[in-house]
Design goal:
One of its GO terms (biological process) is regulation of DNA-templated transcription. It is built from 3 helices and 8 strands; from the N terminus they run αββαβββαβββ. It has 168 residues and is of the alpha+beta class. The mean pLDDT is 82.
Length: 168
């Protein structure tokens, strides 16, 4: 249920890539997009992880609990929203791009789907949210953007296998 420390990361968006050709093509396309958007991230200030939130509206039946990312300059949010807009017409299936803004977050807890029933059993996060709603996790400076393979692991780091990395 808890995200393993080596796998903690900021999630910008999820892509559904079905084969190696799609993975290669999205890496190339995101690289091109990022090269034009990268100047907006050159002077990115430290980001702050502070506060908890959930992906749904019912704190008694939660599937994802996450830490919020605070960006005083709004640079990462602007970059992410622009990237989202550029990916909307992309030929690959992209998860939930029918929105106007990216929810930048760090997943801390999530339930796993029951593969046979394709359902999730949520948990009650009420007390966690009450106690740690404004919890200060710390500050950090992102160094790169990864396109990560969700179900594959780099055994040397414990992190997801990196399909492509763009240094900031």
């Amino acid at each position: 249920m808890f995200t393993a420390p080596p796998k903690l990361h900021i999630t910008l968006m999820m892509l559904v890539l079905l084969n190696d050709d799609e993975k290669r093509r999205i890496a190339e396309d995101v690289e091109k997009m990022c090269s034009s958007l990268q100047p907006s991230l050159k002077n990115l200030p430290e980001l702050t992880l502070q506060g908890l939130d959930i992906m749904n509206d019912d704190p008694t039946d939660v599937n994802v609990l996450y830490a919020t990312v605070k960006d005083p300059s709004n640079s990462l949010q602007n970059f992410s929203d622009t990237l989202l807009e550029k990916l909307k017409p992309h030929p690959f299936t992209v998860d939930d791009l029918n929105r106007d803004s990216v929810k930048i977050h760090v997943t801390l807890m999530k339930t796993s789907a029951d593969k046979q029933r394709k359902t999730r059993n949520g948990f009650d996060a009420t007390k966690i949210l009450e106690k740690y709603q404004d919890f200060y996790f710390g500050k950090f400076s992102p160094k790169s953007i990864h396109i990560s393979a969700r179900f594959n692991q780099d055994h040397s780091t414990g992190y997801y296998a990196c399909l492509h990395e763009i240094n900031l």
